Amino acid sequence: MPAIAIDHLTPEEKLELIERLVDSLEPADIPLPEGHREELERRLKTLEADIADGISWEDLDISLQKRFG
Question: E strands, the chain, where?
């Protein structure tokens, strides 16, 4: 792949280029480090264990309305 001259780009243009490059990737193209995978699995287990303690959006809305008007 030939080199692309980016030295003349402004910081904003460089950030735009980075954004466009990242957006061009598919999720499967980005490797997930094992530590991140382990953390995601831990958080999912916590979510599944705690889900029974959650409340619906409607109940939360009512509670917030009562509390804050």
Answer: none
